[in-house]
Amino acid sequence: MASIQDFILKQVTAQAGKVDIPSNLKDKVLGGLSDSIFGSLTQTAAKTGGIETIKELVTGKTKPAASPITSLATNLFTQNVLSKMNLGSAASSLTGLIPGVMGSLSSFIKDQDGDGDIDLQDFLAALNGGKGGVLKTATSMLGGLFKK
User: Fold this and answer.
1) What dihedral angle (degrees, nearest 10) is formed by the CA atoms of 136, 78, 86, 95?
2) Is the sign of the CA dihedral 116, 51, 127, 76 positive or negative?
3) Which of 34-43, 64-73, 108-117 has the least mean pLDDT?
4) Is 73 within 8 Å of 37 (Cβ atoms)?
């Protein structure tokens, strides 16, 4: 089973193939983009109402381009990576990749257990690498949301 970080990096790398990134900066840019997307997911999961926001994104209720998670990822990438590099027109092309990567997250969730259903609890565990910690509270909250 691939980690969500590996999945995100794979999606970023695949989509960034169309963007002209200087070879000496490529690893740093792709890593920063991937980290920004992962960071936006973990920060959102830890916030009040964040689980619902993630659910709306991965189930398609909220379009990736309109999601606050995508907006946060764009802000993180801009502040932590782009502001330190002079990438010219590639900068907007790179931030434009974020909605596509966010849109692919539902396929990661569906692939985890092979049943084609979206299991947010598994997704949240994957965000945390299957360990307790920052998302433990979020996972507990999720259990409360789906009780009948």
Assistant:
1) 90
2) positive
3) 108-117
4) yes
